[in-house]
Design goal:
UDP-N-acetylmuramoyl-L-alanine:D-glutamate ligase; 13 strands; globular; 5-stranded mixed beta sheet; 331 residues; alpha/beta
Amino acid sequence: MTQASIDVLGIGNAIVDVIAHAEEEFLAREGLVKGTMTLIDASRAEALYQLMGPAIEASGGSAGNTIAGLASLGASGAYIGKVRDDFLGQVYRHDITATGIWFETPAATSGPGTARCLILVTPDGQRTMNTYLGACVELRPADIDPDIVAAAQITYLEGYLFDPPQAQEAFRKAAAIAHAAGHKVALSLSDPFCVRRHRAEFRDLVDGHVDILFANEAEICSLYETDDFAAAAAAVRGRVEIAALTCSAAGSLILADKAEHRIAAAPVARVVDTTGAGDLYASGFLYGLTRDLPLPICGQIGSLCAAEIISHFGARPEVGLAELVAQAGLA
């Protein structure tokens, strides 16, 4: 790869997480099923937001979480995602840039409002999520800044954003710019249902535009239409330079050339919330890659970051990940 001034650029859904405590009675009154995620429209999002109690608002989204994790590790990061020029759009921009991440994607001046995930946490710790996608799915090829893509050692694409055709074009544009600059493209499959909806397009993207693939067992099996993880792993081998396949408590499997590395999950005293585990695994793995560390070490850093994130609520680290990696002697 040629020299780059940014370690990783993430492209994904720019979603503001709005987190508030709620009693069981509130969920029942509003017809919410505890522990689920529901897509909602703008009017429902506004009504529910007004009913929620005091909340913490923070930038979210899968790729956004990954880039924030990289910042916590000490890497340089940038982000491309679409928000609206509204209050929550300002919240998103301030929160993500406060971590040191470059984020200059122009806000939309018309159309849907900034995406938000309204998260209600009941006393038992369960998270009930209501997501309004809004402006984030309006990302267009014109939002891809060629200079930023060309400056990034790795461009990381979030599979959740793959539904809109314009976003698919944006992905291909970014991949072409990255490769022309001599850099790498990574993709997270993100969700098996999204893969199922666009399987042919995802396979085309993987085969022709992706160097580094992240997927869990369900996602990689969905991509290759099999219930057998070993068969899915065999199918992806050779299609990308590196495949990092996560297997929850069983750790991860890294495939590259003819090599195969099995990485154990990092120990965690108690699993509190698995939200963001895959996002933060990608943070650690990409951090290692940008430091030219051996693939097994990249996987171990990924496992360590994932273990930190599942030990508490929320998809952002509560302690500096760089310190954890140093304590573990991994970098």
